């Protein structure tokens, strides 16, 4: 396993294993979200990962709306059973690794609300 795959595995494990009670609940203003860069997961209490993404400012990413929140509503999930897990990453990692980390995590986890999963060269 490469170093970046190891980092991606750690982030994915964090996003999946974070107790649901410690995830940020869905709200109108997303006050509990950080304005820092991070890789985030929209999770359902029992169904698990619904969506994985990255943002330079996680709070700002959600303020304008997010398709996964809408899709969870359309899937008839109770809003109290959907929350956001966030793994902060430092700015240097954001600039150099965030797309690679997100891509690896998406390939491994295949969340149902991510429309496209980046293809990786398997060589």
Protein described:
The chain is an alpha+beta fold. The chain has a single domain, classed as GIY-YIG endonuclease, CATH 3.40.1440. Helices cover 39% and strands 20% of the residues. The chain has 4 helices and 4 strands, in the order αβββααβα. The protein has a 4-stranded antiparallel sheet with strand order 1-4-2-3. A hairpin with a 3-residue loop joins strand 2 and strand 3. The longest helix has 19 residues. The chain is globular and about 40 Å long. The model has no long low-confidence stretch (mean pLDDT 88).
Question: What are the key terms here?
Answer:
globular, GIY-YIG endonuclease, 123 residues, alpha+beta, four-stranded antiparallel β-sheet
- Measured distance between first and last alpha carbons: 13 Å
Task: Provide the CATH top-level class.
Answer: Alpha Beta
Element-level helix/strand string: HEEEHHEH
Domain count: the total is 1
What is the radius of gyration? 14 Å
How many strand elements? Answer: 4
């Amino acid at each position: 396993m490469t170093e970046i795959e190891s980092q991606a595995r750690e982030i994915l494990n964090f996003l999946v294993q974070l107790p649901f009670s410690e995830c940020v609940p869905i709200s109108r203003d997303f006050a509990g979200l950080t304005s820092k860069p991070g890789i985030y997961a929209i999770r359902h209490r029992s169904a698990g990962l619904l969506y994985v993404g990255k943002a330079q400012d996680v709070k700002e990413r959600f303020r304008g709306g997010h398709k996964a929140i809408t899709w969870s509503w359309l899937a008839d999930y109770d809003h109290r059973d959907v929350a956001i897990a966030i793994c902060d990453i430092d700015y240097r990692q954001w600039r150099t690794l965030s797309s690679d980390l997100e891509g690896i995590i998406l390939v491994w986890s295949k969340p149902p609300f991510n429309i496209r999963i980046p293809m990786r060269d398997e060589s």
